[in-house]
Amino acid sequence: MVDLYPAVDVLGGKAVRLEQGDFERTQVYDADPLAAARRWVEAGARRLHVVDLDGARAGRPVNLAQLERIAGTLPVPVQYGGGLRSLSDAESALASGAARIVIGTVAFIDERLLANLLLQHDERIAVGLDVRGGRVAIQGWRERVKVSPAGAVEKLVALGVKTIVYTKVDWDGTMQGVDLRVARELAAVGGGAQVIYSGGIGSLDDLRALAGLRLEPLTGVIVGKALYEGRFTVPEALAVLNEETSVL
User: Fold this and answer.
1) By mean pLDDT, which of 21-30, 98-107, 143-152 is the weakest?
2) Per the structure, how many domains does the chain have?
3) How far is C-alpha 16 from the geometric centre of its chain's CA atoms?
4) Are 187 and 216 in contact (CB under 8 A)?
5) Mean pLDDT, the chain, integer
6) Could you confirm whether 122 is annotated as catalytic?
7) How much is the pTM?
8) Which of 8, 137, 183, 188 falls 20 to 30 Å from 154 in CA-CA distance?
């Protein structure tokens, strides 16, 4: 089954969307992130994806209070990432209510810390694979490491990572479509790890195409701008994802 993760990106205390990971191209969609999150849950969302954009830029979590409000108010699991670059920060996010946290930068620069997090928290740890220009982007998308997305997945799986959150940063916030080739490639090298796809989704046809691949490792899709812009609704998205994955 492919599940839907509506995105709630928090910047300056508001729910926003960036375009292509650019902090200069920001659009505010709700003055209160909890209100945005509640809207998606009341529409039927079973999970949420919350990103601390202030934290991603600062290198430390800034919006744990917002995470605590959302996770403490709404009856769905919250996946949370942004600026989690130390053991204490990761544990603070988990203690603030995150069902799963997404580790980005440190997964590629501190293998020992990643191993420690996996040892202590196992399936509650996901790694964010943010790709810009065909390479993995770190440090709030400002730097890139010399490894291909497929190579990164293979290494992460070998280290014991069970969930990978892939984002095509070049297309994020553009609603220009999905990269089916990359989805197939990551699923092929994932070695049983779950893959959650993000970036570029702008229509129900995009969701239908992803789900229609029937890739067992593809278990989730993160959608942000298309929901905020009313391209489709949460019930419509869930119906398409369930329809496409239930037919063999």
Assistant:
1) 143-152
2) 1
3) 15
4) yes
5) 91
6) no
7) 0.92
8) 8
